Amino acid sequence: MAEERRVVTILFADVAGSTAMGDALDPEDVRALLRRYYDVARETVTEHGGILEKFIGDAVVAVFGFPHTHEDDPQRALAAALTLRDRVRADPALGDRLPIRLGINTGEVVAARESATGDFPLSGDAVNVAARLQQGAESWAILCGERTVASVRAGFAFGPVIAVDARGKSRPLRAVSLLGRAAPLPVARRTPLIGRDADLQQLELVAGRALHEQRPFLVSIIAPAGVGKSRLLEEFLERLPAIEPRATVAIAQCLPYGQRLTYWPLRGVLYRLIGVPEDARSHTVRSAIRAWLEGSGLEALDREVELLAATVGAGETEVSDRSALLAAWRTFFEIAARRAPLVLVFEDLHWSSDSLLDLFEFVMQPRGDLPLLMIALTRPELLDRRPTWGGGRRNYLSISLEPLSDRDTAQLVEQLLEGCTPELVDRIVRRAEGNPFFAGELIRSVAERAGSDQLPDTVQATVLARIDLLTAEERRIIQLGSVFGRAFRAPGLLALEPTLMGVDGVIEQLVDKDLLRATGADIFGFRHILIREVAYQTLTRAERGRLHAAAAQWLEGIAGEREDSLAELIAYHYREAAIPQQSGRLAQPRRRRRGRRGRQRGRGTPFAKRDRARRAGPITRPLPTPRRDGRVWRGDHRGVPNRLATLPRAGSRADPAAEDSRRAAQHLHEVPGLRREPSPGGRDGGTASGCSSGGRPRHR
Question: Over pLDDT 90: what percentage of the chain?
Fold first, then answer.
């Protein structure tokens, strides 16, 4: 079984007073109630994108974040808990006969991605805490862990922090009661749009042509999560009245979960144009559609009304004629555009079903000259599903948002975190690498957990959600490459896992998906450093140790006469291989045969440092490691040199591995062949590479 470390959210639901219920009811009646309860739980959890990990007696354990991560797994778990509670309470067969209580907790677990039984067994304290929170809740109450609540920005109402006594815990758990859903918070003061002037000008130019010259236009804004698609759209819509004051804006919001109907995102567009509220009843919706269409000259008015209403769940009959449905929606938008200039926005199109994408593509080919502008916001994943998206249309524009420059990112950080030091700004800029969302979450993490270097759950989930969409082969390449740092070579991956097949082809696929990029003749680097960090964090400690040992042996094998230049890097990998074995001795790798050259090595050479790291004794405590991104700095008092040089010394009996690592850090700039270079993109942070095109390690 392939095991991974993951941050997940656990939902634990149990029946309160089940013992008394068992005394009062016949066993068959109890079984019938529980079967109904399980069906409701399974439907609710699946609808919100989670999985049922197991049923334990009358308890339900659900997992959000594995085997597929979503950016909003804590929100999904909270929404599922509220829905499950309300459905059980309102169910005629259950009601007060089966009162439930729920606990929700977010934390790190070890999970098996593949198992013979088809389930996903989890282990970790996060599961135990969720169970303890459930036990501490009253009937129909929901208790949440603080980490879950901290991941949720808005949309839910919580009670005050309370202490929950938990069996087996040395101190009470801090918990928060989930009270229900809450109205969205007022929009906070926005920072000025930074670094997107050219993209905004393109949008404004296209809008003028589409709305004034009546040339229907489709614009796709494509970028990974957090780069700024929504912020760019927001700025454009604020300026739209100056371009065309008569324009009507209708937004189709594609949701990642909770949609019972394939075409549900069109509901908001329909209601906006026909002028009915979100809570309108079905008959009201049908009447409003009919009134809106009257006078448009449609021959089959009744059929058109029923098609549109049925699409959003307000019809009286089901629609099986797909061609007629597509044509009805295109006609609907054409009528709307003739009445007033129309701007249609499709947000998060990458979450759409294939059927909905077919409808969008059909609608995007209107007949005649119309003042119609269609804007699709999507991530690159859409192009994996629809490589020809937008192709073949005359009036089509694709805007691919690039990461912000370091200067623009620094300006953003300074505006979001007033009064911060230049050192902190530089640290966040280097780690965010031009992603405004990552920068904001890193800032929030610094503000909430001063001095902590832990990656925020929100950032980790965003990156991991992208990795989870990969095939098993692609995901494994990402994991293995993360062991080497920011960049790696294909032969190195095979040294770590000789059973890999088609490595070059898989790497090319990852390059096409914009997760990797070629940085040399045979070197590939991670497109964003946080991709590497998150992938590395999914490896278990035992597997990290095994892979680092294999990486060190491979580097020894390719070193040849250049072993002096690789000695520090080899020592680093052997040291990382030792860290997981904190309670035992470093697993001794197969020793190289020592020739005449080896016997002539002095104790002060890089070879001696490496050998002492390999022969290290017991590791009794975790050792500080190089930067998460795998960089090794040239003695500039940042990253490795600064952190390792401050390790406490233990007299003449200092830990050999720690001592060698400290010396390696302090003398890194003296080792031949190691140099710091700017990245191809010109970023000051650079890129750490395991090897240059000539086979020599290159650290930036």
Answer: 38
